[in-house]
Every structure is written in structure tokens, then in C-alpha cells.
DNA sequence: CTTGCAATGACTGAT
DNA sequence: TCATTGCAAG
């Protein structure tokens, strides 16, 4: 076999690819061809005659695994690539846990609880234990449980751990140990594992069943781990155990890009690799092929402020490029307009595609502003994350019916759908069943399916309804073996009454839910169509991984050429020609939660480093002086990170000019205090006519919009839905001019009835309709 | 038991 | 701003 592709590599890369024996540490600077090294290394291993089933590659996302398999397939053939063990820790080890499930007392069909399920379970336990929900906040308790699991502290170990118990006692939350215990018990009863259990239970499996560990140790001759700097203790130990026999472990990472400590990631794992694997080889990939020199230098000048790091010198031989740009805005809304305007300019000036551009921000809450601004300028965009597709109510509802069909003990799924669509099984009934079930150690399903067998106080009518519901689920179960995933899911969507319910209440919201369900069914269809002949296509197999999927795994054809907007965390591993990094303000980025502890601040700085190094050609920063938080405006100041970049590589806004411009006058408005926190500073530029005070805010918005419209000649400037009112004359791109007859609903699903002069009466969903106000 | 409305409190980050 | 919760009426 020829290894032509090795010629694409530089010296270090070449060594990293071909040094296949013994432990290797690859320190891969941003943009240094890390993915190429990983794919070529695997291809190289295969070319040396290794069985693809003996190679285990752990990636950070499913998408990365999919793309890497694709590239390896191109090099060595898809039939071979398909047999590789490649995926995220969670997906690989859930597969192994299903195989070995009986050893841990689970069935191989166990459910995976996602974060929503877990939190909802924690919540009901707090209620059941009659604890004060102000002291025991769901998020905090869940966080304690989750981080315990990531550090391999089981519920039993938790109570006996003095240090942990002392912390809980000090915080006056001594019952967390009991909540954890009950939580673990309930998960087990429900035949469910949460995300953290997938790693914890793998460790337990390997600890308690040495013969199982040995089997996998022998079978995985080569182990590769991507993004090693973001592994937590549980993941670290899995790798260590599996690699103990052959010791052919290759970890790839960049300590400068460690950004997941909140998920238990330990940067020490990569820093201590030398101690864990003596006699290791180290390869430093330092040439950045992705970005311009200015971008690389700016990023270097920033990250140098961090203390703990592995020494390396990342450099670029690309063009010098432009300096980092900075956009300064007076309000968060204006920030949106400036960025959207700059995107339009870039597209026009540089002749690039929408897909070459990304907007990155620190928190999901910032997405809304950019969605609005881009929509108004008719710039197509796609949002990653926030409320992921799979977390939407309608999607979870249908999936819960499916989960219940496969595993009737899945109590979280049962509670979700037992009364949706409404079938007269209300809170009282559910509460009684749940209480009895918890007290007597039976599952809710037991009682629901045979209410006469248990002394729960239920009247005959209710019992009838319960039996009807359980018969419905049983009818689905009977179809499990004989139908494929798509047919069954489609049947469930209809027979459960979900589709009918959405259809019956014919609102724009429900229409969009209906469409989402169709999309889910389409993706299930795709799953059944894409499975190979020898793979089972039934619903239980579809459900195995669905909890582990994210938006990125569901990318649609029509979404390819759009501006990407997402959090910096979600942008990890991606790259774009032009990157806009928004909200560079103190207490937002760096986050308010991270400014006290130095190690937290260092992680924020690494996060900023990751953001800058996503850019190939140009990075633009932006910040605002007022930003709405929880619906009230608050003052902000520019982030310290901006000053930390060496001035040689950044173009700061001109202070002189800034002060001369009334538009940027600040300090005076906003913040708490007043009854009227509205920034009225646009008054200064405007040719305002006097209006009644109630309309003041709307007018301000209107002026912002039209002022911007004059500045940027976008094809069809759209008015903010919030300023539209009954009686206004508006223009629609397709229907022409008309008058608003009425406005119903609430943002973002506000709709208007408009009587158009040519096209007659139309109902328009304002978040999509492009209406321009004529007068 | 269901529905609708007012009050309330949450925003880091995500497999 | 938005989703969840508590309460009153049907």
C-alpha cells in the first residue's frame, strides 16, 4: 500500500504520525493540523495491517468522529473505516456498557437521561424529601452530584468522604448526600444512566470485572484521544486502564485550549502525561496553517498572561493580514446592528460566502440580539446550541413515548407523557401513584398498568384511564420487533395524539412544532435508511444514541451557506475566515463568576484564545456600554482582555473621535434606579417629532432601525415586529402595501392580520414576515 | 381535572 | 426577556 498522503506533512507531523509504538503526547497548537495528524496516524496504522477493530479513537464531538471517519474512509476505503471504534467517550462507552449491562444490573436497553431528565428527577426528590427548595437549588444539587461522579465518588463514597461532607455541612446543605443516594437509586430502578453514569459505570465495570477490562485492554491495541486537555478524571482513568496493557496511547491536545473545567475537565491530565507514561514521545506542532500572522501573534500575546502552560511557540508563515478590529457600540442592540452591518460589508468587499463568517459569544443569551439584527438585514444564519433541537418540548414528548415503549420503567419519560395530550390523569393522580411507588419500591409503570393490584386511592374512572394509557404503550411495544424505527415512531406520533393535538390547536407555534416533529421523523427515516444490511433498524437501536446527539449532528443541506452563530465553547474545533467575537465586557467576558479566582480567570482567557484562533483572515471584537440583563438595562465597561492583546496586533477605536461623537455619549443613562431606564440618546442624532411618552421606547427602536437603514443600503430593511401597531400602513416584499387590521399573540410568535391592497387579507408571523412601515 | 392568568426568579459553558 | 409555578374559576 502506498502512503502518498504522508508527503502532505511537515517534519514534526510526520513523526507524530509514524511513531506508533509506545505512549505519545502531541501538543497541537491552534490550527496546526491536528486533525490531519490524527486521521493520517489512523490511516497509517491501518496500512501496517492493523485490524480497524483494534483501534480506539476518542473524539470530543460526534461530528468530529463522523468527519474523521469520512476522511479516513477516503484514504483507506469506507468498509474498513466503518469498523473503527471512533466516537465521543460517552457514545463509545455507552456501547460497551450496553454489551456488559447485565454485570452491573442494568438491561442492555437502558435509557440515557439527559440533563433535563436528571434535573427533573433531582427536583422531584427534593420535593419528596420535603426539603426547602430555596436551600436546595436543583442546579446546585445536580452540579454536586455530577462533579462527584466525574471524580468517581459514588453515592456511597460521598457520605464517607469527610471533606465533601464538611463542605456540605458548612454550606448548611447536609442533605445533599441523601439526595444523591436516592437519585442513584431511582436511576437504577428506572434502568437509566445519566451522562456522568456512562463514565462512572464504565470505571466500575473495569474495576469490578477484571476479566472484562482485560478483554478490552487486549482488544484495543492502539488508543487515540483527541482534546486530551478537556478530559475529566473519570475519562482519564478509563484511558489509563485501557492503555495499561499495550501502552500504545496517543493523546492530542493543547493546554492553551482547555475550556471545560466546569464539566470536571482537568488540565493537569495533559500537564502530567509525562508522569503517567514515562518513556513517552512528545511532538509539538507549532506551525499554524490556519490564521494570519497578526491573528496568531495577537493570540500569543494574550495567552502569555497565563501561568501554567507547556512551553511552545506557535507561529504562522501566512500573510501578515489585518489587525484585530474592534467595534464599539452604545447598546447591545447597536452592537447587533454594527456586527450585522460589518458582515454585509465583508460579504460585499471581500466577495466571501455567508458560511465563511461566524459570530461567537460567551453566553447563549446573547444570540437573540444577533438573530434579530441578521434577520433585519436579510442575512441567512444558523444558531448552534442554546435550546437544542432535541431539547424542545415537542421533540422530547415524542421521544418520551418512544423511550417508554422500549423501557416502561423510564419514569421521567412516563411522567412527561402520561397526561400529554391531556387524558384526565392530573397532578393529584400522578402524585398518589408516585408516592406509593417511591414508598413501596415499585415503578410507576407497575401501578399504571395494573392499578387494581395496588392499594392506591384512585377512583374507577381514573383507573380506567390509566389502563387505557398503559394499553396504548403496550400496543406500541408489541410493534417493536416487527416494525422499523421510522414506521413505529411515525405510528406513535399519530396514535399518541401528539400530532392531532398540535393540529387541533392551530396556532403558529404549534405549526412550527408540527414541522419540528416532521423533521425528527425525517431524521429517524434517515437513520433506518442509512443502516447497513446487517444492522438492526428497530426503534430501540435508534434511541441508543439520540440522547447523545446535538445540533451539530443534525446539520441540514439548506443550512450549509449561512452565517454561524454560537457560543465560543461550541466553536471549538471549527474555523472561519471572518470571526466576530461579541460582548467583550467585564462581567460578561470574563464572566462575572470567573473574576475572583485566578484559575477561573485563566480559563476565561483560554476561552478568548480559542475564539481568536478560530479566525483564518480576520477577527473582530465588539462590546457595548449598555446591555439588557433580565429585561433591565445595565452599564458595562470594555473587557480587560482587549487591553491584554499587544497593541501592535489590534486596532483600537480612536478615543478622540469617540468622545467627539454624541452618539457615544454614555454614563448618563440606564441602569437600575429610575422608572425609565431607556437609553434615549438617539434623540441627539434624530429629527424627532414629539410623541406621547408611552410610544417613546418604540420610537427609539424605530429610529435605530431607520438610522441604520440609511447607513447600510440592505436590499429590504425590515421593521422591528415590536413597533408594529394596528392601523399602520406597511409594505411586504411579495404582497405589496397594506394596512394592519390587528395584532395577536406575543413575541416571538406575534402575528398580524394585514389587508393588502393587491393580495387581500393575510395572516403573517412577524418573526418571519418582512414588513416595512410606510407610515 | 383543566385552563388561564399573574407572579416569580433565572443567565455561564454542554456530552 | 422568558419559562415555570401557583392559584382561582369552570
Structure report:
There is one protein chain. The chain is an alpha/beta fold and 775 residues long. Helices cover 45% and strands 15% of the residues. It is built from 32 helices and 23 strands. Strands 11, 12, 13, 14, 15, 16, 17 and 18 form an eight-stranded mixed beta sheet that branches. Strands 3-2-6-7-1-8 form a six-stranded parallel beta sheet, with helices on both faces. Strand 21 and strand 22 form a beta hairpin. The longest helix is centred in the last third of the chain and has 23 residues, at 508-530. The radius of gyration is 28 Å and the shape is globular. Mean pLDDT is 85; it is low at 656-718. The protein binds a DNA duplex (15 and 10 nucleotides) through residues 60-62, 88-91, 114-115, 139, 195-196, 198-199, 259-260, 262-263, 362-365, 368, 385, 388, 419, 422, 424-429, 547-550, 567-570, 588-589, 591-594, 607, 628-632, 747.
Model regions low in confidence, pLDDT < 50 over at least 5 residues: 656-718
Q: Which structural class do the helices and strands define?
A: alpha/beta
Number of helices: 32
Strands, count = 23
The global form is globular
Helix content: 40-55%
Strand content: 5-15%
Report, as a whole number of angstroms, the end-to-end distance. 73 Å
Largest sheet: 8 strands, mixed
Radius of gyration: 28 Å
Mean pLDDT value: 85
List the helices and strands and how they pair.
Layout: H1 11-18, E1 24-28, H2 34-47, E2 55-59, H3 62-76, H4 78-81, E3 85-88, H5 89-100, E4 111-113, H6 115-128, H7 138-150, H8 155-160, H9 162-170, H10 176-189, E5 192-194, H11 195-208, H12 210-219, E6 222-225, H13 233-243, E7 249-253, H14 268-271, H15 273-276, E8 281-285, E9 287-288, H16 293-303, E10 315-316, E11 324-331, H17 332-350, E12 357-361, H18 367-376, E13 381-383, H19 393-406, H20 411-417, H21 427-440, H22 444-449, H23 460-479, H24 485-495, H25 498-504, H26 508-530, H27 539-546, E14 563-567, H28 568-571, E15 576-581, H29 598-612, E16 615-629, E17 632-635, H30 640-644, E18 650-651, H31 655-660, H32 696-711, E19 729-732, E20 736-744, E21 751-756, E22 760-765, E23 771-773
Parallel strand pairs: 1-7, 1-8, 2-3, 2-6, 4-5, 6-7, 9-10, 11-16, 11-18, 12-14, 12-15, 13-14, 15-16
Antiparallel strand pairs: 16-17, 19-20, 19-23, 20-21, 21-22
Helix pairs in contact: 1-2, 2-3, 5-11, 6-7, 6-10, 7-11, 11-12, 11-13, 16-29, 17-18, 19-20, 19-23, 24-26, 24-27
The chain binds a DNA duplex (15 and 10 nucleotides) through α5, α11, α21 and α28.
Amino acid at each position: 500500500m502506498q502512503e502518498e498522503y504522508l508527503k502532505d506533512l511537515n517534519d514534526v507531523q510526520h513523526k507524530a504520525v509514524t511513531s506508533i509504538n509506545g505512549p505519545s503526547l502531541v501538543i497541537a497548537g491552534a490550527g496546526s493540523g491536528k486533525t490531519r495528524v490524527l486521521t493520517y496516524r489512523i490511516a497509517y496504522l491501518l496500512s501496517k495491517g492493523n485490524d480497524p477493530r483494534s483501534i480506539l479513537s476518542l473524539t470530543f464531538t460526534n461530528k468530529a468522529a463522523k468527519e474523521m471517519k469520512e476522511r479516513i474512509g477516503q484514504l483507506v476505503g469506507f468498509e474498513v473505516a466503518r469498523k473503527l471504534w471512533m466516537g465521543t467517550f460517552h457514545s463509545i462507552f455507552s456501547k460497551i456498557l450496553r454489551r456488559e449491562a447485565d454485570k452491573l444490573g442494568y438491561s442492555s436497553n437502558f435509557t440515557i437521561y439527559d440533563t433535563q431528565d436528571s434535573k427533573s428527577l433531582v427536583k422531584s426528590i427534593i420535593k419528596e424529601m420535603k426539603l426547602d427548595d430555596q436551600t436546595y437549588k436543583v442546579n446546585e444539587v445536580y452540579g454536586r452530584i455530577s462533579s462527584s461522579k466525574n471524580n468517581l465518588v459514588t453515592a456511597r463514597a460521598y457520605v464517607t468522604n469527610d471533606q465533601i461532607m464538611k463542605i456540605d455541612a458548612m454550606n448548611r446543605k447536609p442533605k445533599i448526600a441523601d439526595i444523591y443516594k436516592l437519585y442513584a437509586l431511582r436511576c437504577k430502578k428506572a434502568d437509566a444512566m445519566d451522562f456522568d453514569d456512562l463514565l462512572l459505570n464504565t470505571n466500575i465495570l473495569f474495576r469490578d470485572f477484571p476479566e472484562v477490562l482485560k478483554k478490552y485492554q487486549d482488544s484495543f491495541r492502539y488508543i487515540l484521544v483527541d482534546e486530551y486537555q478537556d478530559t475529566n478524571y473519570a475519562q482519564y482513568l478509563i484511558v489509563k486502564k485501557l492503555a495499561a496493557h499495550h501502552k500504545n496511547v496517543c493523546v492530542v491536545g493543547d493546554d492553551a485550549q482547555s475550556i471545560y473545567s466546569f464539566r470536571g475537565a482537568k488540565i493537569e491530565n495533559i500537564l502530567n502525561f509525562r508522569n503517567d507514561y514515562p518513556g513517552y514521545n512528545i511532538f509539538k506542532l507549532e506551525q499554524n496553517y490556519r490564521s494570519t500572522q497578526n491573528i496568531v501573534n495577537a493570540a500569543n500575546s494574550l495567552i502569555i498572561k497565563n501561568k501554567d502552560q507547556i512551553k511552545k511557540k506557535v507561529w504562522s508563515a501566512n500573510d501578515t493580514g489585518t489587525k484585530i478590529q474592534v467595534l464599539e457600540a452604545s447598546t447591545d442592540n447597536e452592537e447587533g446592528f454594527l456586527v450585522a452591518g460589518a458582515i454585509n460589508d465583508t460579504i460585499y468587499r471581500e466577495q466571501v460566502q455567508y458560511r465563511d463568517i461566524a459570530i461567537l459569544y460567551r453566553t447563549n443569551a446573547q444570540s437573540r440580539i444577533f438573530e434579530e439584527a441578521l434577520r433585519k438585514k436579510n442575512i441567512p444564519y444558523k444558531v448552534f446550541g442554546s435550546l437544542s433541537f432535541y431539547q424542545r418540548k415537542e421533540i422530547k414528548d415524542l421521544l418520551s413515548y418512544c423511550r417508554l415503549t422500549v423501557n416502561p420503567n423510564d419514569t421521567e419519560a412516563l411522567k412527561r407523557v402520561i397526561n400529554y395530550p391531556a387524558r384526565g390523569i392530573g397532578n393529584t393522580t400522578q402524585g398518589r401513584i408516585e408516592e406509593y411507588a417511591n414508598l413501596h419500591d415499585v415503578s410507576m409503570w407497575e401501578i399504571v398498568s395494573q392499578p387494581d393490584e395496588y392499594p392506591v386511592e384512585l377512583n374507577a374512572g381514573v383507573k380506567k384511564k390509566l389502563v387505557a394509557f398503559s394499553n396504548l404503550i403496550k400496543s406500541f411495544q408489541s410493534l417493536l420487533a416487527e416494525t422499523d424505527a421510522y414506521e413505529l415512531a411515525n405510528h406513535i406520533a399519530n396514535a399518541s395524539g401528539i400530532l392531532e393535538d398540535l393540529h387541533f390547536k392551530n396556532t403558529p407555534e404549534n405549526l412550527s412544532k408540527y414541522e419540528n416533529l416532521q423533521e425528527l421523523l425525517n431524521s429517524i427515516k434517515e437513520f433506518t435508511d442509512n443502516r447497513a444490511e446487517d444492522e438492526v433498524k428497530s426503534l430501540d437501536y435508534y434511541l441508543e444514541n439520540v440522547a447523545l446527539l446535538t445540533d451539530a449532528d443534525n446539520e441540514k443541506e439548506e443550512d450549509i451557506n449561512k452565517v454561524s452563530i454560537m457560543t465560543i465553547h461550541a466553536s471549538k474545533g471549527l474555523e472561519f475566515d471572518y470571526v466576530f467575537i461579541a460582548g467583550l465586557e467585564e462581567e460578561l467576558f470574563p464572566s462575572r463568576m470567573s473574576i475572583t479566582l485566578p484559575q477561573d480567570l485563566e480559563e476565561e482567557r483560554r476561552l478568548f484564545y480559542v475564539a481568536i484562533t478560530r479566525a483564518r483572515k480576520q477577527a473582530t471584537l465588539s462590546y457595548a456600554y449598555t446591555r439588557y440583563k433580565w429585561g433591565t438595562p445595565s452599564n458595562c465597561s470594555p473587557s480587560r482582555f482587549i487591553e491584554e492583546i499587544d497593541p501592535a496586533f489590534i486596532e483600537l477605536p480612536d478615543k478622540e473621535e469617540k468622545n467627539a461623537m454624541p452618539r457615544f455619549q454614555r454614563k448618563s443613562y440606564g441602569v437600575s434606579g429610575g422608572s425609565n431606564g431607556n437609553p434615549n440618546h438617539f434623540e441627539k442624532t434624530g429629527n424627532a417629532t414629539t410623541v406621547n411618552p408611552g410610544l417613546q421606547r418604540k420610537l427609539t427602536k424605530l429610529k435605530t432601525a431607520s438610522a441604520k437603514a440609511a447607513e447600510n443600503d440592505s436590499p429590504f430593511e425590515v421593521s422591528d415586529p415590536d413597533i408594529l401597531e394596528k392601523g399602520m400602513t406597511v409594505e411586504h416584499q411579495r404582497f405589496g402595501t397594506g394596512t394592519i387590521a390587528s395584532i395577536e399573540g406575543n413575541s416571538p410568535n406575534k402575528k398580524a392580520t394585514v389587508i393588502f391592497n393587491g393580495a387581500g387579507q393575510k395572516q403573517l408571523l412577524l418573526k418571519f414576515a418582512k414588513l416595512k412601515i410606510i407610515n
